[in-house]
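Researcher: Sequence of Zinc-binding dehydrogenase follows. Predict its structure.
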Amino acid sequence: MKAEAVVFEDRMRAAFREVEVPEPGERDVVIEVAHSWISIGTESSFFRGERISGEVPYRPGDPWPFPHVAGYQKVGTAVRVGGAVTHVRPGDRVFATVSRIGGLFFDFGGHVNPAVTDGSQVWKLPDADVPDVAYSGAVLTQVGYNCGSRPPVERGDIAVVVGDGLVGHWAAQTLHRRGADVRMLGRRPGRLRLAEEGGYAAALNGRLLDPAAELARAGGIAVVVDTVGSLETFRRLQPLLRRDGHLVSAGFLGEDGAIDIQTLRAQEITLHTPSGWTQPRMDATIRGIAEGWLRTLPLVTHRFPARDAVRAWELIAAPGSPCLGVVLDWQT
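Model: Prediction complete. Tokens:
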């Protein structure tokens, strides 16, 4: 079976081309894709050759993971449904994660159309007045939801989200929903302004102020969520964490993730290391988007026809890239 896909052919080289996908089986759903959302952080890491799989960094001597179909999230319409799949019917609007790929380094990928996907990785979209494209990054939204859901929070607790990318915004939205007083520490004024305008976080611009000094005046921190992989930033904030505080580490640290547990013990800091997705978290994330408190569309800064994916990656990889949320549209 033939499909079109966004393929990372080598480091820093993307292509939009035809690929082989397996014939669908009894457990599969075939999806006509409408929109797929680029996960800039994770996909860029693969694009640069920093990883060989999910959380595994590249080391000299490892095989380069190319070519492979990039990504892991999309929305569209179910056009064929295997006999063993009972929660989706042809014609349903659906969200899907990874789909089956043939003949490349990985046997799965995200940006592909049509998409042959195991039914366990397909969710029927709610009947809500929300555009389908709002759900197209739901795995990544779930990462932010997971970060914001892990630590216990009491109303008024100060939570610091390190990073003004997508995961940072969705972690901040989740913590705000739970009653935290959220501060977003980042370096891009436009992204920080989105959080303030959305009403879910106060901005701390790390280029203009000393965040530790600013936060010291605010009182003890209950939660630090690191979405960018910066232990150095956490170490600067750690003295401000109150006893029984929480560190949520979601950024990719490569081989630089060593942390001295004994330094956490003195303050009884709990470390959380969220990764991947589960059905209950995906269910909760999709419900949050439908209810409107997990906001995705205001974070979309760029949309490209899928056939222009190479141009999208040129912009994403450019120094000082303006991209935050990037969506590929497959029906234009």
